[in-house]
Design brief:
4 helices, 8 strands, 8-stranded antiparallel beta sheet
Amino acid sequence: MRNTENTVVERELELKLVLSPERSIPVPARLAYRTDDPYAVHITFHVGSEYPVEWTFARELLVEGVFRACGHGDVRIWPTKVDGHDVVLMALSSPDGDALLETPAAQVSAWLERTLRAVPPGTESEQLSLDDGLAELLAITSVADDLWPHDPWPSDDSQDGEA
């Protein structure tokens, strides 16, 4: 059954943009998860430009990336240790450039746990109400059928000019 109220799970955190093994700069960010978009996580980076940078990718990718290396292409995520601390690394690639971001694993894991309580794995499709949407589309089609007094497309058997 579809949850009619949209729940948003957010977390502000500071990631590190890794410039080299010795140097990184802080990047304020917001993790967001919405039950009306149950398969995705959204990350907004505030990088000192006029507009924030937004990325959206599969929640499942981030969940797996907390435990083991995963992803390919534009988003790759893996756990590691830096100075004895558990962190999660995210490599993001776009036509505008590449970024390697580091975040404390505990913060990401705690936020993910909240998203998993909001929409447990395997129940995402229930949030989308696909059956209701399909029923609505079919109802619209049946109403449209009633609007045509006759078949607007002649059958293959009719002669030219006959309807």
